[in-house]
Amino acid sequence: MSDTIVAISTPRGFGGIGVIRLSGDKALELAEKIFNKRIEMPRYAYYGAISIEGTPIDTGIVIYYKKPHSYTGEDVVEISMHGGIKNLEMVLNYLISLGARLAEKGEFTRRAVENGKMDIFEANAVIELIEAKTEKGVLLASSRLFGKLSKAVMSIRNKILEVNSHIEATIDFPMDVEEIPEETLRQSLHEIRDSIEKLLSTYKDSRVVIDGVRIAIVGKPNVGKSTLLNALLKFERAIVSEIPGTTRDTIEEMINFYGFPVKIIDTAGIRESEDIIEKMGVERSKHAIETSDLILFVFDASTPLQEDDLELVRFTEGKMRIIVLNKSDLPKALTKEELSKLFPNEPIIEISALLREGIDEVEGEIKNKLLNIDVDSILVSNKVEHDLLSKALTHVNNAIKNLETGTLDLVSEELREAIETLSDVSGENIGENVLNAIFERFCIGK
C-alpha cells in the first residue's frame, strides 16, 4: 500500500486555473472529503463546491483516474480550481492534515517510472519538454516522450539477446545446436556496436538544441560590436556611441535563432587600461572568449590594422571564428583582401551594422557553422542515457575482443552484462542516486 501524495501542479501565481493533484491508495477517499458530490465514475468531470471542514472555499472540477490507467499508475485525482494562491494553499494544507503527504520534487513522475508507466528515457523527456527554450527543443523532447529512444535501445537489446541466446545454446548443447560461424558472429557484434555508437554520436548535437550555443562578439574598442549585437537581436539592447570603450562590461542576451537557443555576448573592447572598471570588463571579455563556441571577430573597415587587432587575432587562435568587416559604408582603410591574408581559411563578411547591411549573411554563416543539425536524428540528450549506453558499448567491445581469443564463455558473459545494462531503462535497476539526480530537476507537483 503506497502512501498518498499531494501537490499543487500548476505554477504559483494568479491564473485562470490552479490544479491540485493526489496520487495513492487514499486519493479518492481524501478528495471526497473536500468535495460536495460523490465521485462514482473514473475519467468523468464532476463540478461542485470544494470545502474545508464543511465551509465552501471554491468551486471546481474533480476528475478521478483509477489505477493503473493514470499518469502514475496509482489512483489519481486532479482538482481544478480558480487559479489563486491562498485558496490552493488552504485546500493543499487541509488535504495534508487529512493524511496526505506533500510530494517531493518529481515524485509523481518517479512513481510513473516505478510503476512501469514510463521508462527513464521518457521521464527525462518530460522535464526536457517543460524546460524547452525553443521550438527545436520541444520537437526533440516530444519525440523522446513518445518512445523514440526507448524503441531504438530495446531494438539493440533484442539483437544482443538474440545473438547471446544462440551462443549460450551452442555452449550448453554443442551436439544439438549448430555453431555460429565466427565471421557471422563478428559481423553481428560489429553491427550492434555501430548501432550504439550511432546513438551516442547524437548526444553532442542534443546539447546544442537544449542548452544552446555561446557566441562572443570580439574586437578592439569602437569597431561596432554593440551595433552588431543590436542588429542581431533586432532591438536596441546596447548603448552605442562613437566614444571608444562605451561598453565596459559584457552584455549577454539569449535569442531564439532558427529554433535554437543562442546566447550572444557583446564583449568590452580588449586593450591596456589603467581604469579599474575597464580592466575588470576586459577580464570578463577574455573569459567570454574562452568559453564561447563561436567568435564574431569584428574589424573596422575605416581604420587600418593596428597592434590591438593583431593581439586579438593571437588571443582567439584555435577558436571557431567568423570574420566581420564592419563599417562598409565608410571610406575604406582596411579591405577584405588584407584580412584574407590573416585568415586564409575563415569566412570574411563585409557588413554595415549601422545600416543593417550584410546581417543576413552573418546569420547564415552562424547557422552553417553551429546549427546545421537534423533534430529528427537526435536521440540521446541526457547524461544518464549517455552513461548507460557507454557502459553497454564497453561490454560489447569487450565481447568483440574476447571473440578474437576464441573464448565464447567470455563473449557471452559480456553480452549478458550489456543486456542487463540496457534493461535498466525501466528504472528498476537504476541506483537511487541516479534516480534522485533525474527527478531533482523536476518541480513539486510533476
Automatic annotation (TrEMBL):
Lineage: Bacteria, Pseudomonadati, Caldisericota/Cryosericota group, Caldisericota, Caldisericia
Binding positions ((6S)-5-formyl-5,6,7,8-tetrahydrofolate): R21, E78, K117, K446
Binding site for K(+): N222, S241, I243, T246
NCBIfam families named among the record's database cross-references: mnmE_trmE_thdF, PRK05291.1-3, small_GTP
Domain TrmE-type G stretches: 212-371
InterPro entries, alphabetized: G_TrmE, GTP-bd, GTP-bd_TrmE_N, GTPase_MnmE, MnmE_dom2, MnmE_helical, P-loop_NTPase, Small_GTP-bd
Single annotated GO MF: GTPase activity
Gene Ontology CC terms: cytosol
Statement: the UniProt record of this protein carries the keyword Lyase: no
Cofactor detail note: Binds 1 potassium ion per subunit.
Primary enzyme class: hydrolase
Main location: cytoplasm
Keyword terms of this UniProt record: Cytoplasm, GTP-binding, Hydrolase, Magnesium, Metal-binding, Nucleotide-binding, Potassium, tRNA processing
Similarity comment text for this entry: Belongs to the TRAFAC class TrmE-Era-EngA-EngB-Septin-like GTPase superfamily. TrmE GTPase family.
Cofactors required: K(+)
Gene behind the chain: mnmE
Enzyme Commission identifier(s): 3.6.-.-
Binding site for Mg(2+): S226, T247
GO terms for biological process, alphabetical: tRNA methylation; tRNA wobble uridine modification
Name of the protein: tRNA modification GTPase MnmE
Positions annotated to bind GTP: 222-227, 241-247, 266-269
Compartment(s) where it occurs, according to its Swiss-Prot or TrEMBL record: Cytoplasm
